[in-house]
Amino acid sequence: MSDFTCHRCAANPELTSEAPEPMGDLPFNTDYWKRIQAVSCAGCWAAWKDMEVKIINEYRLNLLEREHRKMLKKHMHDFLDVEGKGDSFAGPDAVAAEWTPET
Predict the structure, then answer these.
(1) Domain that holds residue 69
(2) Tens digits of per-residue pLDDT, 14-58?
(3) How far is Cα 65 from Cα 23, in angstroms, rounded to an integer?
(4) What letters, b where the CB count within 10 A reaches 16 and e where it falls short, cover 67-95?
(5) Disulfide engineering: 79 pairs with which of 89, 91, 97, 100, CB 3.0-4.6 Å?
């Protein structure tokens, strides 16, 4: 039995009915990704991967653009509740109203 706690599941108990399992393999073996792994379960990571596609498509993000990558990273932090604030993620509607993709 591990003492792993997923920040997102802890803030939203309705997301899971069983003990969360830690996130599996890391995208990159860096301290940053180890921090994400320490606070995210496998179920929330899978949910984020689905949401990530929706955000990229909805806002027509070009991941070659630094600002677009920063925006996606902020959404990931909010969705996974990396900081442990307990706030719920509002999805693509959470983007600032004044932001529009470059055409």
Answers:
(1) 7-90
(2) 776 677 788 888 888 889 888 988 889 988 999 999 999 999 999
(3) 28
(4) ebeebbeebbebbbbbeeeeeebeeeeeb
(5) 89
Phi, psi dihedral angles at 22 (to 5 degrees)? -60, 150
Cross-strand bridge partners of residue 41? 22
**What residue type is assigned to position 25 of the chain?**
D
Q: Does residue 86 lie in a domain region? A: yes
Task: Write the pLDDT tens digit of every residue in 49-85.
Answer: 999 999 999 999 999 999 999 999 999 999 998 887 7
- Residue count of the chain, please give it: 103
Three-state DSSP string of the chain: CCCCCCHHHHHCHHHCCCCCCECCCCCCCCHHHHHHHHHCEHHHHHHHHHHHHHHHHHCCCCCCCHHHHHHHHHHHHHHHCCCCCCCCCCHHHHCCCCCCCCC
